[in-house]
Amino acid sequence: MSTSLEKKTENVVVITDLTKSFDTAQILKGLTLSLKKEENLVVLGKSGTGKSVLIKCIVRLLKSDSGTINVCGNEMTELNNLQLNEVRRKIGFLFQGGALYDSMTVRENLEFPLRRMFKNLSRAEVNAKVQEALENVGLPDSIDKMPSELSGGMKKRISLARTIIVDPEIMLYDEPTTGLDPVSSHEISLLINEVQAKYKTSSIIITHDIECAKTVANRIIMLQDGKVYKEGTLADFENSDDALVNSYFKSQNITNTKTI
Ligand SMILES: Nc1ncnc2c1ncn2[C@@H]1O[C@H](COP(=O)(O)OP(=O)(O)OP(=O)(O)O)[C@@H](O)[C@H]1O
Ligand SMILES: [Mg+2]
Questions:
Q1: Measuring from atom 20 of ligand 1, which residue has the nearest CA?
Q2: Which of 17, 24, 108, 232 has the lowest CB atom count within 10 Å?
Q3: Which CATH superfamily includes the segment(s) 11-90+168-249?
Q4: In whole numbers, what is the pLDDT of the chain averaged over residues?
């Protein structure tokens, strides 16, 4: 059995020399990164640098051109569809824009992934899981609401509940706070930390929101020109002399990256 110290240095995702092009445009140009067990890894980078493409390649929603993608010991590029779906069960993906099904109630939105992944759950077990997921995101009373009755922040929370309801080991958050006011953004950032603590998830969080990065990051990488441009702690980024890094962090105060 591994000790908690070993756990935190164990890699759950290792990506090596990943490349991905669309027609003549090469987006990922040999990207290498690792995600440690139970860490929150923040990914920064300009719009269009390939952040969303990167996490879609991880779950094979997009096929990479070359390089390796290892998830929990599985080489994703070599798996058949059945094996791929097994690994995907471990991964929760909060999509950029995180759309709920508009014609379904909150309860139905949450039951959907649950029934797809766990076919033999009883009605009582489904109800309990839906209730627990909603409590975890602080919205137990929204169960019978339609998405159109929810605010943007509430929709994000419900999207998060829909993702965590199937107990993922790895969470991929694509711009979880975009479009929210600062208070709602901070609440979502705190929820990301709660999910990490409660479910022991290892997470990649793509964000342009530096306050979110500061709240959730154990480690940060910045993408530029299809590769990792800089990797380090929040303090490394805040203390950097690099002009590109400063364009994100220059007006921010120095704080330490939280420990896990
Ligand atoms: N399915 C696709 N087909 C063709 N081009 C694509 C596809 N998906 C992404 N791209 C292109 O790849 C580049 C990177 O896109 P991506 O969505 O990863 O950017 P991003 O870093 O997530 O940007 P943002 O911060 O705006 O979300 C863009 O030029 C985009 O047009
Ligand atoms: Mg994106």
A1: 48
A2: 24
A3: P-loop containing nucleotide triphosphate hydrolases (3.40.50.300)
A4: 91
